[in-house]
């Protein structure tokens, strides 16, 4: 009788372990699919990043065109070169520079171009894989415990409540 109980407990333990392993694999796949580093949420964020990068490329193309135009104007207009040299502090012999306090200045002559923060490629907003594995392991542990509980409950149930393999 004791050997039979041991065999029954061994069957319950094997059944519970198989359920836990299946739960681990399924939950890992499901959580990874939706919230993992390469899941649907990360894909949505990647699409937004691509859109932002495309806008940045357009802005940089505009800036390149403006700078090419500026380069061309410097190459063809000698007076422009002299004006720019004076703007950065170069003087002709015999000239003096007059520096105004900031409150008397009309403008600082900037073009108003503000460089954008570079976009980081390759970083995922999904859950880290270690967290996905931990969630899957917790799910597997819960399934293992519930399977053991159900198996042991049926093992200790009165014989009239247990179903036999022959009955349907």
Question: Could you characterize what this model shows?
Answer:
- The protein has four helices and no strands.
- The two termini are about 25 Å apart.
- The longest helix has about 35 residues, at about 40-75.
- The chain is mainly alpha-helical and about 170 residues long.
- Residues about 110-115 have low confidence and may be disordered.
- It has helices at about 1-35, 40-75, 80-85, 130-155.
- It is rod-shaped.
Please provide the ordered H/E string of secondary-structure elements.
Answer: HHHH
Euclidean distance between termini CA atoms: 26 Å
Overall pLDDT score: 80
Task: Give the fraction of residues assigned to helices.
Answer: 55-70%
Tally of helical runs: 4
Low-confidence parts: 109-113
The shape, in one word, is rod-shaped
Radius of gyration: 36 Å
Number of DSSP-assigned strands: 0
The secondary-structure class comes to mainly alpha
Strand content: under 5%
Biggest beta-sheet profile: none
Features:
0% strand, mainly alpha, 168 residues, 4 helices
A few lines on this structure:
By secondary structure, the protein is an all-alpha fold. It is built from four helices and no strands.
